Amino acid sequence: MTLRRHDERPNVVVILSDDQGPWAMRCAGNGELETPNLDRLAATGMRFDRFFCTSPVCSPARASLLTGRIPSCHGIHDWLAAGNTIAKYEPARNGEFIDFLAGQPAYTDALAKAGYACGLSGKWHLGDCHRPRDGFVFWDAHAKGGGPYYRAPMVRHGEVYEEPNYVTDVITMNALRFLEQRKSHSQPFYLSVHYTSPHSPWDRENHPKMLFDQYHDGCPFTSTPDLMPAPDWVRHRSIPVDDAGSRRQKLSGYYAAITAMDTNIGKIIDWLEENNMRESTLVVFTSDNGMCMGHHGLWGKGNASFPLNMFEESVRVPFLASHPGVIQAGVVNTDLLSQYDFSSTLLEYVGISTSSDPRSPGRSFCQLLKGGHRDPHEHLVVFDEYGPVRMVRTTEWKYVHRYPYGPNELYHLTNDPAETENRVNDAATRPVLREMRERLYEWFVIYSDPDRAGATEPVTGRGQTGLCGRRAGGEDVFIPF
């Protein structure tokens, strides 16, 4: 491992939201949402308009961000319903702690080895939340993956407590506490600020009354589809919304959660500016997965439907990167990029050279951040998966393959960006279909671990309770319907 000079390494703050589509920011064109601080990051840096999660559900996507590996390699295929905390909060596995990423590389490992002080404030949801991952010197975690915004289960010093205050404010307060601890040190720092916002619940009781009422009473919500029917292949909707009152309530809570989070992000940016660290700190904002809020008649992400879906709103995520004086301000990039590219990008950006991971498909886009270019052949295709559902997407086409049950889908995104016409059975598209299938198959052969691959796993979107594949010892670890 080689480093640049110690005093040249920037600090890093990675802010991760939970269930936010790229459409849910004013800087991306949503004039109904108040997000002045996300807009501030976009104005002082780069906004990536076609950035994709590796899986449209939280835990697999978060594992891929951290490791650069796909779910069929790291083995997390659904949100983790057990293994995170004690029995009171997760009775499914009687409180057993599971380190789902044991023995797998993470970019934080490389940062810590290179001298970074690493901290986490907020959601982990990759297994054992009670013990910090190696390399972290600060660990104030959410005990689960979501839940109430008031009385949220939080972990401090290995013990769970219920936080009476609004959890978005608390995650920020803890993040600022870490920053205060580090400002007198010459050692560079890395900070993960992982909000549960804007994940459900979205009722009035879970969010600041003023913000909820502001949207509920004054927003027409023309920025999302109005009670659109779901596709005819959908057999189950995880959140059925069929009336105007329920739609208005859920959108009010969702928008209020985002604006409350945005206010807190502003506090972090302000702290960096007030302490003369803005120019020495890379700030990244992204989300674990996208979100349908009425799009395609669905409410949720990949598991908003069964069969699981790969709609653009589910698989695309916001991605903002701001570092004044290094990243050009106000740039919008439209390359196809993925969460599996993030780990290698971040390490190159801070000047850490490591040997490439043959199990990771990730390719650094650091040069894009610094005003250069990537080989155009490297970012024409992205891949996605959710258990036995796999996707390959080019700039023009998207193909979705569902292994055990179908249906398969093929969309010509140039002419049909809303994904309304499935052309998988169209004779005119057979050459495209053949090429997309071959690409999908070959890519997963290269980057999957046969012991952890998701193609044959019975993933339903209702949660994962243990290690999958051969490590499961024959136990069914995916919650059935």
Structure characterization notes:
By secondary structure, this protein is an alpha/beta fold. It has a single domain, classed as Alkaline Phosphatase, subunit A (3-Layer(aba) Sandwich). The chain has eleven helices and 23 strands. A ten-stranded mixed β-sheet has the order 8-7-6-5-9-2-11-16-3-17, sandwiched between helices. Helix 5 packs parallel to helix 7. It is globular.
How would you briefly describe this protein structure?
The protein is an alpha/beta fold. 25% of the residues lie in helices and 20% in strands. A 10-stranded mixed β-sheet has the order 8-7-6-5-9-2-11-16-3-17, with helices on both faces. Strands 20-21-22-23 form a 4-stranded antiparallel β-sheet, covered by helices on one side.
CATH fold-level label: Alkaline Phosphatase, subunit A
| Number of continuous helical runs | 11
Under the CATH scheme, which architecture would be assigned?
A: 3-Layer(aba) Sandwich
Q: Whole-number radius of gyration?
A: 21 Å
Task: Name the beta content range.
Answer: 15-25%
CATH superfamily: Alkaline Phosphatase, subunit A
The largest pleated sheet is described as:
10 strands, mixed
Structural category is: alpha/beta
Q: What's the count of strands?
A: 23
Poorly predicted regions: 1-6
Strand order in the largest sheet:
8-7-6-5-9-2-11-16-3-17
Overall 3D shape: globular
What is the terminal separation in angstroms?
Answer: 47 Å
Instruction: Summarize the amount of helix as a percent range.
Output: 10-25%
Query: What's the structural domain tally?
Result: 1
